[in-house]
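Quick one, probably user error.
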């Protein structure tokens, strides 16, 4: 390892490399952003026993870690190259399995042969969402996606309107439509996310319910019974007031993608809403906000 904390690897010509970065929790979003920006097709995060965060991702061998800004990670190394043996040459797609989040079973299209819970034709009991994520975030592998999808399962009873802000693959909005939501708007600034969400809605037969757009929030007409935002703290701070305005009276705004030390900043950005439910898994928070009057009634 050199002075920058980055391991040098010589045999990376052509193909893909798997990289492993360890960072302080407060920098994990920045490292994750850097990895996505550097072209990763998947980023897997886990909290280590010492509280640091480990991020594993695939990058092109040409890109590798060469542009990683100094000081962003505690350590960074290439753990496998496509020139290595079979185990090291596998891509993340080989490891993804069907995952159940409440009433929604997410099945990657390329792993549909794996045994999974039975499909149910009754949306009240459960639906099977076939997933093809392309290059967008939200295959169901990340804990924040799963937390949000569980909230979709809990909150969508039928005929709700829902805004999926920062839709990525569209997994939340498509899942909601499959459970009976009557109007879904899925919005992302990333053209790949918009494309993938349109395809995902079609794949799962809910194109007529899910409107996909890259329009700015100011052009979206509400109100929505449910607003979902699994986005970074900076995005919540910038767009929180607009999201609050789009929420119908008595509605719920569910957000994830933040850690405990960011809770107060989220609460400030979404005032006057108040938290009526919170869950933490692997260091990630899911916060559900509602009207203060609802919270007082204990809804
Ligand atoms: C962490 S991903 C969440 C994807 C998916 N909703 C999920 O829960 O897995 C965040 C998404 O927010 C999108 N995003 C970031 N800033 C945004 C903005 N200002 N407006 C709309 N989408 C944004 C990103 O492109 C990305 O697809």
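Nope, works fine. Designed sequence:
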């Amino acid at each position: 390892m050199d002075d920058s904390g980055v391991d040098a690897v010589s045999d990376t010509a052509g193909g893909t490399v798997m990289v492993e970065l360890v960072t302080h929790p407060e920098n994990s979003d920045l490292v994750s952003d850097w990895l996505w920006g550097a072209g990763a097709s998947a980023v897997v995060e886990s909290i280590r026993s010492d509280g640091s965060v480990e991020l594993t991702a695939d990058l092109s061998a040409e890109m590798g870690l060469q542009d990683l800004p100094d000081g962003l990670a505690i350590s960074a190394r290439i753990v496998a190259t496509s020139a290595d043996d079979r185990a090291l040459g596998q891509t993340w797609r080989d490891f993804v399995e069907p995952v159940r989040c409440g009433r929604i079973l997410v099945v990657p299209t390329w792993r549909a042969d794996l045994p999974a819970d039975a499909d149910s034709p009754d949306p009240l009991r459960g639906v099977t969402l076939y997933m093809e994520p392309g290059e967008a975030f939200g295959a169901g592998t990340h804990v924040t996606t799963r937390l949000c999808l569980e909230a979709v399962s809990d909150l969508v009873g039928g005929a709700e309107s829902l805004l999926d802000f920062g839709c990525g693959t569209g997994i939340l909005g498509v899942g909601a439509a499959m459970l009976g939501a009557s109007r879904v708007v899925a919005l992302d600034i990333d053209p790949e996310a918009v494309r993938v969400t349109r395809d995902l809605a079609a794949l799962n037969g809910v194109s007529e319910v899910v409107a996909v757009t890259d329009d700015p929030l100011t052009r979206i007409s509400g109100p929505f019974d449910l607003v979902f935002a699994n986005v970074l703290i900076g995005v919540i701070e910038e767009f929180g007031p607009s999201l609050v305005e789009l929420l119908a009276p008595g509605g719920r705004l569910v957000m994830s993608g933040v850690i405990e030390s960011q809770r107060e900043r989220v609460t400030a950005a979404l005032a006057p809403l108040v938290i009526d439910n919170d869950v933490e898994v692997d260091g990630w928070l899911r916060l559900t906000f509602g009207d203060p009057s609802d919270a007082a009634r204990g809804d």
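Helices lie at 28-37, 86-89, 143-155, 171-178, 191-203, 233-246, 263-269, 292-297.
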